[in-house]
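Can't paste images in this forum, so I'm doing it all in text. The chain is below; anyone willing to post the predicted structure tokens underneath?
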Amino acid sequence: MDSFHHWLMKAHLGFRKKVMAMAQKYDLTLGQPKILEYLDEVGSCEQKSIARFCEIEEATVGSILRRMEQGGFITRKRDQDNRRSVIVTLTEKGRQSAHKVQLLFDEVESCALQGISDAERAILRDTLRKVYNNLRKTEQ
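Text version of the structure:
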């Protein structure tokens, strides 16, 4: 098995497995690290924006956010202008966890990219972006 999809899946699963093994130290479960990273980057945002960015169904994001709210990582409030919209904001605990998650992502990324030059990393990132965009085009 030396196909593109085989190695892409193995790389993704290996990365995720390593991230989640480390994230458990911070009481984080699947889906929470990338949500923390996103919220730290954008600040407060609508729940549906998180779902869209993280490529997670809105219902699934809702249950992940519920656990994050119970854990004290985020707050959720109804938007004053649009009562159907929920605004999600990091708490201080969430901000601290987001910084730990960023260090965790950096560590796993460094491990994954050992022996790969900066030029090769740039090509890999650009190629993966193109693959992703090609797949998104076929969904529309």
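The radius of gyration is 17 Å. The CA atoms of residues 63 and 130 lie 31 Å apart.
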